[in-house]
Amino acid sequence: MAPTSTPQTPFGRVLTAMVTPLTADGALDLDGAQRLAAHLVDAGNDGLVVNGTTGESPTTSNAEKADLVRAVVEAVGDRAHVVAGVGTNDTLHSIELARTAQQAGAHGLLTVTPYYNKPPQEGLLRHFTAIADATELPVMLYDIPGRSGVPINTDTIVRLAEHPRIVANKDAKGDLGRASWAIARSGLAWYSGDDMLNLPLLSVGACGFVSVVGHVVAPELRAMLDSYLSGDVHKATEIHQKLLPVFTGMFRTQGVITTKAALTLQNLPAGPLRLPLVELTAGETAQLKVDLAAGGVQL
Q1: Fewest C-beta in 10 Å: which of 22, 220, 262, 276?
Q2: How far apart are CA 206 and CA 209, in angstroms?
Q3: Residue 71 host element (H or E)
Q4: Which residues are tagged catalytic?
Q5: What confidence tens digit (pLDDT) does each residue in 6-29 have?
Q6: Distance of CA 109 to the CA centre of its chain
Q7: Pick from 144, 79, 70: which is nearest to 100 by CA?
């Protein structure tokens, strides 16, 4: 059973979009995934997203995705919300993944805007509605036009919020003005999907984060959130500014690449990447060490 949630925080407050650990030969490392999930929850995450793009979902099979959900739910499902990424640019495929994720024990679904085929807003409305209709699980939309090519317009978000199972949005649009209007009009639980904007999005009504840097600074993210919610905005700002080198360093190149490198530096489960992603160069690794150290991360 998932941990207690409220309509305001249906998936918890601090979630990390977890990488998918692989063995040296590139196979799924379920033991490593369970160990990493437990580490992340111990560090302060009350939710994990598996099979998202940070989990290399474009290059994992349907069977691997199901196995990963089962393993992570078994490891931490009584302590954290386990949200399964089911987003693709094929509605029927996403529905299949959603139903499989429910059977595997996921507590919720994350579904990204269909990418590359650039559907109109009516197509987005029907796509997300069909996925939400397919299971009994609560759904978090994922709006990231920089990757998908198409934003979810505010009017579309408001219409989608009428669905009883569409309860949240992960915002990686990078537009605080649009976020302000969408939060006010939709009533959805709003999660920052852009680590650099975690604190600013709280100020316009976000309830938490779906983070990448949560792999390495979850305690600090939790402290920043708790400080803000308790009214100590000065302390929250101090933590935000301390973490700026981490926010910058973890995204100097593709985030999965740097995250797996950072975890390897900390002797945590990560493993190699699947093509077309490739490991950091020696120079990039050296820069990552500098960035992490500047943000107070112990290696």
Answers
A1: 276
A2: 8
A3: helix 62-76
A4: 142, 170
A5: 668 999 999 999 999 999 999 999
A6: 11
A7: 70
